[in-house]
């Protein structure tokens, strides 16, 4: 390690956003230590050091923070798409596991020399009552209270936001908090229940022939905005470089689409005509969109990449995953 290099820890470095963040930090000249239960699934990590460990265990954090670090990025959490978060079957694990990870970090960070801590919160903290209209959801940062998230995942994220800010006030920890709005892109979960809407739609369309039918949960009129991974990383970097703005602040796109529109956009990218079969399934709130006035004001920046550009990159990657999986399954069947 060069003594002039900035140093960073990325917790959750085996996950989608975390693995991309490690690459970005390395490109920016950092010495990076990653930590997670697993290595990245779809690409080899470029971290200088990678610790396989369970961050619910304080001893693992003790091993990770064995020296001073300029920055710690805390992205580790028990999470997934709507099929994981909104069924209710995983609520206890989501709250218990994620809260433990954050408690362990904050307890130890008081003792260790950590320059600045980034915490990845979520748009899921916003009240359900402000997101019942698909056309006019309200997600300005100040609307988080009175609190009423639509999932236990959202409640845990909101609690942890307050915990980070409390440690900032009482112990002087330098923290930054961002509320992510549906981050997507290549190298993310694309099947198995933890895939989010863009990846799930891309997979479904990649798996069918022109003119075939795909299933969509609900009537497809529910709205969301989706942010490509590169712009998410830009936002994280801007927030971490700000001298005194802690957040919480939204990092998300203001380009809102319905799930039906998302499917149509992906089908057009794929060059296929599709039919939609609407079925029952976990949905979350009726409408959600990022509100970017605060990030524009404090960081003089906001995401601007059109959704279609990110979907084109993502679809090409998922199309290849589908093709490779079919070839592998065919070889295994023959053998």
Automatic annotation (TrEMBL):
<dbReference type="Pfam" id="PF01370">
    <property type="entry name" value="Epimerase"/>
</dbReference>
<dbReference type="InterPro" id="IPR001509">
    <property type="entry name" value="Epimerase_deHydtase"/>
</dbReference>
<protein>
    <submittedName>
        <fullName>NAD-dependent dehydratase</fullName>
    </submittedName>
</protein>
<dbReference type="InterPro" id="IPR036291">
    <property type="entry name" value="NAD(P)-bd_dom_sf"/>
</dbReference>
<feature type="domain" description="NAD-dependent epimerase/dehydratase">
    <location>
        <begin position="9"/>
        <end position="252"/>
    </location>
</feature>
<keyword id="KW-0520">NAD</keyword>
